[in-house]
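U., I forgot to send this yesterday:
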Amino acid sequence: MKKPSSSATNLNKENLKHFLNTQDFTKKELQDILDLMKMLKEARRDNAIPQLFKGKSVAMIFEQPSTRTRVSFETAATLLGGHALFLSPRDIHLGAKESLEDTSRVLSRMVDIMMARVDDHKTVADLAKYASVPVINGLCDWLHPTQIMADIFTMMEHIPEGKKLEDLTVAFVGDATNVNSSLMFACTQFGMHYKHIGPEKYLAPKKWQDIARDNCKKSGGKLTITEDINEVKGCDIIVADSFYWFGQEAEKEERLTTFIPKYVVTKEMMDLAGENAIFMHCLPANDQREVTREVMEGERSVIFDEAENRLTAQMALLVYFTHQHHVEPSEETIKYHEVKINDFLKKL
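Result:
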């Protein structure tokens, strides 16, 4: 049997888990991550975050730019005692001069976990296929699971008194974005009533609806897909997102004309939802397009709590996906290597 060429090869773990889609996890597993988020946020509040990522590194691959994803992962790694490496398309070859398979295998020898924010889901899926360390989907063309962990946690923090997650009704007003798909899946996994409200042309495709309805059968949740803006009535949470994104610039005018003004979240829409309804948005927000500045700055807006919870989510994800493989060296082992290396250096 060929002997491993380095200790990093031993990172090829049994039962290796990746975070590509919340659908890959049970409700219990997702709740475990949320519970970990709560504890880590409380520790951050007390300036007492355990160094649970000490000596570890996360490689952050970005095909698309981001404020929240980059800053939250870098800060999370630092707060937990580790290190984050920013890798843009200019920094690595990623399928150009080097195959995606080789990039994944090389990075697996050097870091403890990878995060990829990519154009195509196949890219992050292939990274995970060839990786021997966990891979986190930081965003792809149809999913945004890290954002959704922050969103569900924010809902928990602002849940109406007397209600549980499964009692909530969440209305996503707008396009069939990657935030919409991931939120639809997670909310129906937790047994909520999820509504996608938007123009018929931009409603969730059948593939998404089938996944969500299957979730509902298991969780007791409900799914509503409609053009009727009056469906916001009685909702606990209104969620908005951009009406166009990267790669949709050619459709910008058509999209804006279709969505505006009917599907812009206004104070009137929030009032229709109810006095206790809160507003959420993953940001960046184009105020006066998908939402008015009045709503964004209003008392019922929790968008900046939601943004902060991206950091909360990333801390938990880094810990959750690396802790089970962590081996704490004994003092004897540490001393052995320290003495051995120092003795060698003295002879140089």
